[in-house]
Design goal:
Blueprint lengths: L1 E5 L4 H12 L3 E6 L13 E4 L5 H9 L5 E4 L6 H6 L1 H21 L4 E7 L22 H20 L2 E7 L1 E3 L17 H10 L3 E5 L11 E6 H14 L7 E6 L4 E3 H12 L4 E5 L8 E2 L4 H7 L8 H14 L7
């Protein structure tokens, strides 16, 4: 079975590509390397180019009959999406539609979409299920929601089977320490804390007066390997009728506050973490936690590395041994 993984040199895409290969899939990674890292996909067949180029995509699909497409190629910075909305709609939506159209035209029947919890927008403290109304508050989340709508329309019109996986906060690294998170700039909390500890810098807390036990935001962190495994299970489910057009939340099912994550990161690394407290950021919810019951029920997915200490320990192993990321 052959799979095309767009954005496969990025953080999530590279972990999924490796697990797919280990599961018996023949994988081709498509990436522009604007954000991805060549070092993360050594040994893989690579198609280098931009998803905003339809002619490039036509050549990619013409050279090989793919059984499935897993689409990760997207810009992910929420703040940047507010400042540069057309960039995000152009790449995440325009480029995504190019990939979808090329896949449908080539007769691909299985499509996995890398979506996000940002499609829900501002929600309450209860665990978020897939039937919670979507109301994204930024272009990043909106671009992902538009792609979900295009997938559902393609299912009805062309018989495409798809699964849209809505991630909460992907975190951690491959347990063997060879792969990890290397965004530039880095906006995710756990790598920011660990890098601040290594470089003896401050880490900022935005808001200490939320209605949570310690006053800081509570978020749901899912280990990258648990996340990757869900993609393989979703592909398998599409062989039958379990996931012909489904949306799945993927999260830990439990939340951890910013202070809890900082304290655990300090304990795992053995390094002090200097904190600077600041005001709330606009648009931040007090609590965002996923219900992944549907993925467990339909896909048979189980979290194997759910403990926040394990997530941080794996991330620490990567960052401590790759202090310049993949450039090291």
């Amino acid at each position: 079975m052959k799979a095309l993984v767009t954005g496969g040199a990025g953080y999530i895409g590279s972990h999924v590509a490796r697990l797919l290969s280990e599961s018996g899939w023949e994988v081709t990674v498509l990436d522009s390397f604007e954000k991805g890292h060549r070092q993360a996909i050594k040994g893989f067949d690579v198609a280098e180019g931009d998803i905003r180029d339809p002619d490039f995509l036509e050549r990619v699909f013409a050279c090989c009959p793919y059984d499935a497409v897993l689409h990760f190629a997207a810009f992910i910075e929420v703040g940047e999406s507010v400042e540069k909305p057309l960039l995000y709609y152009g790449n995440n939506l325009g480029g995504g539609l190019n990939v979808l159209e090329a896949a449908v035209r080539a007769g691909v029947k299985r499509f996995i979409f890398s979506s996000t919890a940002a499609v829900y927008g501002m929600v309450g403290p209860d665990p978020i299920t897939e039937d919670v109304p979507t109301a994204p508050i930024n272009p990043y989340g909106q671009s992902k929601l538009y792609m979900e709508a295009a997938l559902e329309s393609s299912r009805k019109a062309y018989g495409l089977s798809y699964a849209s996986l809505r991630y909460f906060n992907a975190a951690g690294a491959h347990p063997d320490g060879t792969m990890g998170e290397d965004h530039r700039p880095e906006s995710h909390l756990i790598p920011r804390i660990l890098k601040a500890a290594l470089e003896k810098r401050e880490v900022s807390i935005y808001g200490t007066d939320y209605p949570t036990p310690d006053g800081t935001c509570v978020r749901d962190y899912i280990h990258i390997m648990d996340l990757a495994r869900a993609h393989v299970l979703a592909l398998e489910a599409m062989k039958g009728t379990k996931a012909t057009g489904e949306v799945f939340n993927l999260g830990n099912g439990a939340g951890f506050s910013v202070r809890q994550v900082i304290d655990r990161a300090s304990a795992v690394s053995g390094l002090p973490v200097t904190v600077r407290e600041g005001p709330r950021r606009p648009g931040d919810s007090a609590i965002l936690v996923a219900s992944s019951a549907k993925a467990q029920r339909v896909l048979g997915w189980k979290r194997k590395r759910a403990d926040i200490g394990v997530i941080i320990a794996d991330a620490w192993r990567w960052h401590n041994s790759h202090r310049q990321g993949y450039q090291a």
